[in-house]
Amino acid sequence: AEARRLLVDAVTKLARLRNAALDAAMDYVFAQMNMMFDVFGRNNDYLTRVRRDEQALAAHMRVASADLARWDAQALINQAGSAASQRTVKAMNDRALARIGLNVEQHIKRLRRASSRAASALNSAGVTVNSSAQESNNVDAEG
Fold first, then answer.
1. Are 68 and 5 contacting, i.e. CB atoms less than 8 angstroms apart?
2. How far, in Å, are 2, 5, 90 from residue 83 at the CA level?
3. pLDDT digits (tens, 9 = 90+) for 112-124
4. 2-31 and 44-124 helices cross at what angle (nearest 10)?
5. Which 8-state DSSP code applies to residue 141?
6. Fewest C-beta atoms under 10 Å: which of 47, 95, 111, 141?
7. CA-CA distance, 142 to 126, in Å (whole number)?
Protein backbone atom coordinates (compact mmCIF):
# COMPACT_ATOMS: atom_id res chain seq x y z
CA ALA A 1 0.00 0.00 0.00
CA GLU A 2 2.91 2.31 0.74
CA ALA A 3 4.39 1.57 -2.68
CA ARG A 4 1.03 2.32 -4.31
CA ARG A 5 0.79 5.57 -2.35
CA LEU A 6 4.27 6.55 -3.50
CA LEU A 7 3.31 5.67 -7.07
CA VAL A 8 0.20 7.87 -6.83
CA ASP A 9 2.31 10.73 -5.46
CA ALA A 10 4.91 10.27 -8.21
CA VAL A 11 2.29 10.22 -10.97
CA THR A 12 0.63 13.30 -9.49
CA LYS A 13 3.95 15.16 -9.36
CA LEU A 14 4.74 14.05 -12.91
CA ALA A 15 1.37 15.32 -14.12
CA ARG A 16 1.94 18.65 -12.37
CA LEU A 17 5.42 18.98 -13.87
CA ARG A 18 4.05 18.12 -17.32
CA ASN A 19 1.32 20.75 -16.92
CA ALA A 20 3.87 23.31 -15.79
CA ALA A 21 6.08 22.52 -18.80
CA LEU A 22 3.09 22.77 -21.15
CA ASP A 23 2.05 26.07 -19.56
CA ALA A 24 5.56 27.44 -20.03
CA ALA A 25 5.60 26.28 -23.64
CA MET A 26 2.17 27.81 -24.29
CA ASP A 27 3.26 31.10 -22.70
CA TYR A 28 6.30 31.14 -24.94
CA VAL A 29 4.27 30.29 -28.05
CA PHE A 30 1.68 32.98 -27.43
CA ALA A 31 4.39 35.51 -26.56
CA GLN A 32 5.92 34.79 -29.96
CA MET A 33 2.54 34.80 -31.75
CA ASN A 34 2.93 38.25 -33.30
CA MET A 35 6.25 37.23 -34.84
CA MET A 36 4.64 34.04 -36.16
CA PHE A 37 1.80 36.09 -37.65
CA ASP A 38 4.37 38.25 -39.40
CA VAL A 39 6.10 35.16 -40.81
CA PHE A 40 3.10 32.93 -41.58
CA GLY A 41 0.21 35.38 -41.81
CA ARG A 42 -3.05 35.01 -39.89
CA ASN A 43 -3.11 31.21 -39.61
CA ASN A 44 -6.49 30.51 -38.01
CA ASP A 45 -6.08 26.77 -38.61
CA TYR A 46 -2.99 26.76 -36.41
CA LEU A 47 -4.74 28.66 -33.59
CA THR A 48 -7.75 26.34 -33.84
CA ARG A 49 -5.48 23.31 -33.61
CA VAL A 50 -3.66 24.79 -30.60
CA ARG A 51 -6.98 25.45 -28.83
CA ARG A 52 -8.27 21.95 -29.62
CA ASP A 53 -5.05 20.37 -28.38
CA GLU A 54 -5.23 22.42 -25.19
CA GLN A 55 -8.87 21.40 -24.61
CA ALA A 56 -8.06 17.74 -25.30
CA LEU A 57 -5.15 17.89 -22.87
CA ALA A 58 -7.35 19.50 -20.20
CA ALA A 59 -9.99 16.78 -20.65
CA HIS A 60 -7.32 14.09 -20.48
CA MET A 61 -5.87 15.59 -17.30
CA ARG A 62 -9.36 15.72 -15.72
CA VAL A 63 -9.79 12.01 -16.46
CA ALA A 64 -6.30 11.28 -15.10
CA SER A 65 -7.04 13.30 -11.93
CA ALA A 66 -10.25 11.34 -11.35
CA ASP A 67 -8.33 8.09 -11.89
CA LEU A 68 -5.63 9.18 -9.42
CA ALA A 69 -8.29 10.08 -6.85
CA ARG A 70 -9.81 6.62 -7.27
CA TRP A 71 -6.38 5.00 -6.82
CA ASP A 72 -5.75 7.14 -3.75
CA ALA A 73 -9.05 6.04 -2.18
CA GLN A 74 -8.23 2.40 -2.96
CA ALA A 75 -4.77 2.82 -1.41
CA LEU A 76 -6.34 4.15 1.80
CA ILE A 77 -8.72 1.16 1.90
CA ASN A 78 -5.80 -1.22 1.35
CA GLN A 79 -3.78 0.47 4.09
CA ALA A 80 -6.56 -0.16 6.60
CA GLY A 81 -6.72 -3.83 5.55
CA SER A 82 -2.97 -4.24 5.63
CA ALA A 83 -2.79 -2.81 9.17
CA ALA A 84 -5.13 -5.57 10.37
CA SER A 85 -3.11 -8.24 8.55
CA GLN A 86 0.11 -6.80 10.01
CA ARG A 87 -1.34 -7.13 13.52
CA THR A 88 -2.31 -10.74 12.76
CA VAL A 89 1.17 -11.56 11.43
CA LYS A 90 2.79 -9.87 14.45
CA ALA A 91 0.68 -11.98 16.85
CA MET A 92 1.60 -15.14 14.92
CA ASN A 93 5.30 -14.19 15.00
CA ASP A 94 5.15 -13.46 18.73
CA ARG A 95 3.58 -16.88 19.40
CA ALA A 96 6.17 -18.60 17.20
CA LEU A 97 9.03 -16.77 18.95
CA ALA A 98 7.65 -17.75 22.37
CA ARG A 99 7.42 -21.37 21.24
CA ILE A 100 10.99 -21.24 19.88
CA GLY A 101 12.18 -19.71 23.16
CA LEU A 102 10.61 -22.58 25.11
CA ASN A 103 12.25 -25.12 22.78
CA VAL A 104 15.63 -23.44 23.22
CA GLU A 105 15.27 -23.55 27.01
CA GLN A 106 14.41 -27.27 26.84
CA HIS A 107 17.48 -27.95 24.70
CA ILE A 108 19.70 -26.00 27.09
CA LYS A 109 18.37 -28.03 30.04
CA ARG A 110 18.98 -31.27 28.14
CA LEU A 111 22.52 -30.19 27.27
CA ARG A 112 23.23 -29.29 30.91
CA ARG A 113 21.89 -32.67 32.06
CA ALA A 114 23.95 -34.50 29.45
CA SER A 115 27.02 -32.45 30.38
CA SER A 116 26.63 -33.18 34.09
CA ARG A 117 26.03 -36.89 33.38
CA ALA A 118 29.13 -37.06 31.20
CA ALA A 119 31.16 -35.21 33.84
CA SER A 120 29.95 -37.55 36.61
CA ALA A 121 30.70 -40.60 34.43
CA LEU A 122 34.22 -39.33 33.77
CA ASN A 123 34.69 -38.44 37.44
CA SER A 124 33.65 -41.96 38.46
CA ALA A 125 36.21 -43.28 36.01
CA GLY A 126 38.92 -41.26 37.74
CA VAL A 127 39.14 -38.30 35.34
CA THR A 128 38.70 -34.92 36.97
CA VAL A 129 36.25 -32.78 34.98
CA ASN A 130 34.48 -29.54 35.84
CA SER A 131 31.10 -29.22 34.18
CA SER A 132 29.93 -25.67 33.64
CA ALA A 133 27.53 -24.48 30.98
CA GLN A 134 27.20 -20.85 30.06
CA GLU A 135 24.78 -19.14 27.71
CA SER A 136 25.96 -16.49 25.32
CA ASN A 137 23.84 -14.33 23.08
CA ASN A 138 26.87 -12.61 21.59
CA VAL A 139 27.33 -12.85 17.85
CA ASP A 140 30.87 -12.84 16.52
CA ALA A 141 30.61 -10.07 13.93
CA GLU A 142 34.24 -10.39 12.85
CA GLY A 143 33.65 -14.07 11.96
1. no
2. 11, 15, 10
3. 888 888 877 777 7
4. 160
5. S
6. 141
7. 40
